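Record type: monomer structure entry
Structure origin: computed from sequence
Chain ID: A
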Amino acid sequence: MNPVASPQASTGFDASLKKSMNSELDIRILFLVILFTFLAGCADEKTLPVPADWTQAGWKATGNRISTTTEISRDFHPGTVHRPDAELSERAVGFLWGVELGQRRSSDPVIAFGKVVFQTYPDDPARSGRVVCFDEVNGVLSWSLALRSVSGNTDLPSLPYDPETYSVSSPAMHGNQIFIVSSRGELLCLDAAGMENGNDGSFQDELAYLNLGNSESNADLELVGDILWRYDLIQKSSFSVSEIYYSHLTVIGNYLYVALPQNHGKSTEGFFQEGDIDGLYVFDIESGKRIAGNRLYQGVPYRSKVWAVPVSGSVNGLDLVFHPSRDGKLHAYKLPQAFPRGGWHHLERMWKFEVNPIDFLLDRNGLPLLNSAAEKDSNNTTAGVGISSTPVWDQGKIFIAGGQDPGQPKGQGILYCLDGSVPVNDKEHAVLWSFRDLGTTVSTASVIDDLVFIADLNGGIYCLDAESGKLHWTHHTNEMIVVSTFAVDGRLFVGTTQGRLLEFEVNRKKTLRRTIVFPDPIRNSPVAANGRLYVSTSRFFYVFD
């Protein structure tokens, strides 16, 4: 997995640095630079992320698919560069570097502290996945970590791989720590520096983990990732292995919130049992100790898998974490500044909201279940309704999409805007507006400049007013969209499974600036950080500058 680099990629930084040092500097600017450098050296590196870094899915911990970085290239194109051994095509514009991927999907990347990190899978399902870390500027591989295959462990069933899945667990980054859920159900905390600064953390068995034997040679460890701690979510938490690679992570304060898509192992016949945990765990980021989780009560039905990231926001001074649940509801839990030492803690639920209308619920024959709420909660309800969209918190409002199962791309979806300052049990006032002219969606909204953008599986792209829910414009691609919209630098990007990346102006009036054609399907949302745009297709990872 060697990078393809643009000729400009490895020369600009050093040259510009020398030039700036040789030029005359205003003494006041020089003093400020020296002062800032001194203060930075005195501070913990974890408190000094670059503002335009992209450290987890969604801006900060709000879930919003936007970036504050600017100066994204106004004219870029992949050309024919889609193999690591290919010469740089003259048709490629703004291409900095890239790497070839397997056809089995890769996660969204995180970009922070000069590193680009993501998880990828090879074409051969018998081979393990891999976490890779590249230099942000020149694309040089810093380290990689081969993930152990589930099929190689006789204690666990073989994990089904599906090249058409909608997402792979994306990393989250906090300072020098990288968190990721592997395909075998491991929650891993990795050192962003790899083995460059030694084998750190409580986990010291990387060679055995990688089946490298007892060799202690530098060659074995030169490019190997450093596991700081490891937690087995399947064996220690009794979760099903099926589709655990849909798990999502969010760092909130000094804690890691992990949302798993499956129910607790004790649940049977479609109902939660007493004491079940509904797929939301809280970990101490330093020790890897599981310290808290949410709880549902006996007899509550679960209906579907949930593929969404937990997010946070503040309501009237009260900090909350929002978690879409398998019971079809959005739950809000009180977010402690710190958990008491020792023991296990249940998150305190403040409210819940039924995301999907009753007419979205299906019976076992696939027909709408339009009867009473009591029947809706009966065991006849199938897993035909889900929450595949991450909630977004923006200026006191919560935007959450629900709808029928993604396996039914022609199904119906809905987008809600909730008032975060109103108790949700006061549904009449909590729902500011809803938009039902939406198809089944796995897209998370982008909220920017009082506009809301969202896409659906049918290929529709929608722009709505964040205050009123008024539809400003619609664009139909007639191609499947399995990614979220992404807004950056006054532009909105949306990719399709036909390999087309559409670029709109962020505006109430529809302005399709251009369509960039890639050679492979786009099944990951674009990401931007520090003036660069990152685009993943099913075969290649592109960096444009």
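Annotation 1: The mean pLDDT is 75.
Annotation 2: The first helix runs from residue 12 to 22.
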